[in-house]
Amino acid sequence: AQSVTQLGSHVSVSEGALVLLRCNYSSSVPPYLFWYVQYPNQGLQLLLKYTSAATLVKGINGFEAEFKKSETSFHLTKPSAHMSDAAEYFCAVSPSHAGGTSYGKLTFGQGTILTVHP
Amino acid sequence: GAGVSQSPSNKVTEKGKDVELRCDPISGHTALYWYRQSLGQGLEFLIYFQGNSAPDKSGLPSDRFSAERTGGSVSTLTIQRTQQEDSAVYLCASSQDRSSYNEQFFGPGTRLTVL
Predict the structure, then answer these.
(1) Mean pLDDT of all residues in B66-91
(2) Which end of chain B is more exposed for a tag (fewer CB within 10 A), N or C?
(3) What is the pLDDT of residues B75-85, one digit of tens each?
(4) Residue A117: pLDDT above 80?
(5) What is the mean pLDDT of residues A19-35?
(6) Would the pLDDT of B41 be above 80?
(7) Which among A43, A49, A98 is the nearest to B106, CB-wise?
(8) Chain A residues lying within 8 Å of B101, measured CB to CB
(9) Which 8-state DSSP code applies to residue A34?
(10) Which residues of A touch B106 (CB under 8 A)?
């Protein structure tokens, strides 16, 4: 079974500071990995995804993530935080191999609430 | 084009009542997913549809939960004899097909409160 662990349920940064949200996965074979963002009272929006092409993935709003197989990690970073980045962020995993009932199904981490202060 | 829509946006019900939650996916998307977001459990998968069939119902919490999809489009999640632990935000998502490669587009959710 696949699982995702997000380290830190709350992260607080100053505006302009580096954002680092941590995600580690557990899977018998390298999965597909996703980062979603959820703004208050809204649905989830895809930030970026890793689907076994380039290990460094660039997404929307200046975010990027690096897939590190040796560390089973997929941490999300942004060089300079904006106030508008304040939201909850979810890391998710999905099987990369077709077949089986889990294919296409997202398994989410517990989420990390990002606070950006002036 | 239009995104995934869900109705109602909020639902307050009394314990023991039945509720129906509706999801309208993006036109042409063959795969549809239901997730539940609650304080204690985080985001958890409930069920998915490929077309009108639901091959995997393992995520449904109990036999009080059921879902159907008609015409390869609209889906309804029904909760019978609601309990307080059913209080959560129910999210629907759709994608082009049931491939992990494809992005799932999420609706705004239905917030269910069981009194």
Answers:
(1) 96
(2) N
(3) 999 999 999 99
(4) yes
(5) 92
(6) no
(7) A43
(8) 32, 51
(9) E
(10) 36, 43-45
Q: Residue A36 in contact with residue A45, Cβ under 8 Å?
A: yes
Chain B residues within 8 angstroms (CB to CB) of chain A: 4, 31, 33, 35, 42-45, 48, 55-56, 58, 91, 93, 95, 98-109
pLDDT at A38: 94
- Tokens describing residue A39: 């703004």
Alpha carbons A73 and B102: distance in angstroms, whole number: 21
CA distances from A91 to A18, A35, A36, A107 (A): 18, 5, 6, 9
Q: Which of B81, B52, B50 is nearest to B68 (CA)?
A: B52
Distance CA B69, CA B24 (A): 10
Query: Two tokens at B71?
Result: 């015409």
Rounded CA-CA distance B109/B23 in Å is: 9
B108/A111 CB distance under 8 A: no
What residues does B113 pair with on adjacent strands? B12
Residue A83 has a pLDDT of: 96
